[in-house]
Amino acid sequence: MDIYIIDLIALLFAVGVGFGLSCWILGTLLEKSNSFGDNKGDKRYYKAYAKFSTRKDKLTNAERKNFCSSYGKTICSSSDGPGGWENVRKLTDEEIAMYDHTSVEEASRKREEHIKDLEDSFNLWENRNPNSNLKGVFSRLDEEEQETNKKGVSRR
Amino acid sequence: MATLCKNCSHALVFNPETQKLECSFCGSSFSAEEVESESKQYRQDLQAESMDTVYGETDGKYMDCYVYTCSECGGEIIINGSESSTTCIYCGNPNVVFSRIARQKCPDYVLPFSITKEKAVSMVRERLKKGIFVPSKIKRIKIDYVRGIYLPYWLVNAEFSDAVVVRGEQGSGKHSSTYYFGRAGNMNIRNLPIDASKMVSDESTARLEPFSMTLLKPFDEDYLAGFYSNVTDITYSDLRSSALNRAKEYFEDEAINDCHVDNPKVIDSFPSIKLSNHMIYAMLPAWFVSFKYKNKQHTILINGDTGKVVCGIPWNKILFYSLLIGLGILLTVIAFFAFKYTLPIFLAGRSSRSSSNRGKLIALLVAGIIALFSMGIRKVIKVVKNINLTQDRDTFNFMKKRQG
């Protein structure tokens, strides 16, 4: 009798392991075979790193219910930017100054900073595109040009 | 209007391989910076006229259609309200609707195509060939449309704040318990690309990322020559909601990692986002390749810069399920004999200590089997989700409704 019970348990487990493993193996194969590019831009590309100001572990029921309302905060108001129904457009310095409650000069300086911030992340030294013939603003000299430059400097 | 060759006045087309504008007639080539058109000012004032005005309709029959004239042959070019470059159906020459990208509406940057049309098609074919579950009909399928489209994006800086409650399990076996964890904080995001076209789903365009922002060029309309392009048509409300969803995903991901629990799930949150009013308007490249299979259109997206292919291909269900059952039976037989001979050894112990170990072992085994099943099924669901995106009618219409 015991032998039959053991056989039955072994069979149940075997079916679970066999078909579970089979599902996993074929699911992985199917993903590799038929699904491409199923991932979004990683947070590190956009420097999106969270800074936690509050950490609470093992919350009680009451804490759990009130946590979001106690620690969540609204950081924008309707006067911070154009109305939701408006089409997105490039704002003028005057408009930015109005929404940011600052001066036009300050808005203009911030715009410059933002563009510079983006440009700083560009590789100005070398255009890394292998197909491109367009060199960056400060492209690296090739060996021949470096030699010519050295000769020019030593002559001087 | 087309950008014309300095030597023979034939329309120039941008070649992603050489990164130059080339004339197919006389063979001259120019870099985009070199081409300085004298008629630029004149071209900026050329507006696309509403079709209702042109054909004297007053009932809005041609609601979102506009007429533009081809600079090469004078043919009528029909475009929708947000297209900014297209191809003439009569002469095949590229045309840029300058009034839509001039002055205030002008994008700040453009990321030129690096992948040629031929390369995009060969990459798709390569992918299709390799898949073991790709039906043989698809491997030999005729590609219906291939369109290179510059998609409009806003690169936004944002400040994000959130408070989340994460539910998760700690401990193992019998000692496993469900707990709740609270995390609140903020996050600054730099240059997050938000798709500015209403017609393509954010879900599809987000998968095209990343783009090499290091290769962005100051905008020059000559990069659009030979490609289709759209201008921004989303509202501030759309932009805020897209940015909020992306930021929320990143924050929740970090909050979950910070809790160190099994089976984590965010059950409550209080997100808020403030976008900087200093945004950068850029055009980023994508290839849309479509084919028809079992009366359904499938559109494969390819990042025109990195060559990342985004799609889900229908699978050969008969082959998949026969392999699943065959392999399942084989593994079951092997596992049955393994259990048949090892279980009595484990069940032989009579002490209370060994009985507790036995219980743990059985619980572990059952948990492992459930985990294996769910992992396999999740992978299948992921593929199905991706296939649904590939079959998205909006994406297909976005690409199909273009002349040429």
Structure description:
Chain A is mainly alpha-helical and 156 residues long. Chain A has helices at 2-34, 61-71, 93-100, 104-120, 143-155; strands spanning 35-36, 49-56. In chain A, α3 packs across α4 (104-120). Chain A is elongated. The relative contact order of chain A is 0.03. Chain B is 34% helix and 30% strand. In chain B, the strands form three sheets. In chain B, strands 7, 8, 9, 10, 11, 12, 13, 14, 15, 16, 17 and 18 form a twelve-stranded mixed beta sheet that branches. A three-stranded antiparallel beta sheet of chain B has the order 1-2-3, with no helix packed on it. The radius of gyration of chain B is 28 Å and the shape is elongated. The chains are: A mainly alpha (156), B alpha+beta (404). β2 of chain A pairs antiparallel with β11 of chain B.
Map the helices and strands.
The complex is a heterodimer of chains A (about 160) and B (about 400).
Chain A: H1 2-34, E1 35-36, E2 49-56, H2 61-71, H3 93-100, H4 104-120, H5 143-155
Chain B: E1 12-15, E2 20-23, E3 29-30, H1 40-44, E4 49-50, H2 51-54, E5 65-69, E6 76-80, E7 83-87, E8 94-96, E9 109-110, H3 117-130, H4 136-139, E10 145-170, E11 177-195, H5 202-208, E12 217-218, E13 228-230, H6 236-259, E14 262-269, E15 272-275, E16 280-293, E17 296-303, E18 309-312, H7 317-347, H8 352-390, H9 393-400
Parallel strand pairs in B: 9-16, 10-13
Antiparallel strand pairs in B: 1-2, 2-3, 4-5, 5-6, 7-8, 7-13, 9-12, 10-11, 10-14, 10-15, 10-16, 16-17, 17-18
